[in-house]
Amino acid sequence: MNVPADLLYTKDHEWLRVEGNTGYVGVTDFAQGELGDIVFVEIETGGESLNIEEVFGTIEAVKTVSDMFMPVSGEILEVNPALEESPDVVNKDPYGKGWMVKIKITNPSELNDLLSAEKYSALL
Q: What fold characterizes domain 8-108?
């Protein structure tokens, strides 16, 4: 299982790549593997400011639908346009082209509560 060392993780299997005061959020390789073939991603929170652990969208696989949670508080700047045409990109490249949203991080102190790759791997 792939757990890149340069990302931060949540117990809910989301990841966050921090670039200054912005970040990219997606679901982990473990999550996409558990979900199975992803057929639809719904994110209608573009432009909204959400608090940590608030639901920002849903991900639908053949066998289930799961909520996706904000790893930190932030404003959703962009929703990945590739998800509309090819939601299976999340299965193929969860840490790259399969990102969900780009956010402006509004409370950087919350980053301290996220898990390192080592701690996330220990959860699995």
A: OB fold (Dihydrolipoamide Acetyltransferase, E2P) (2.40.50)
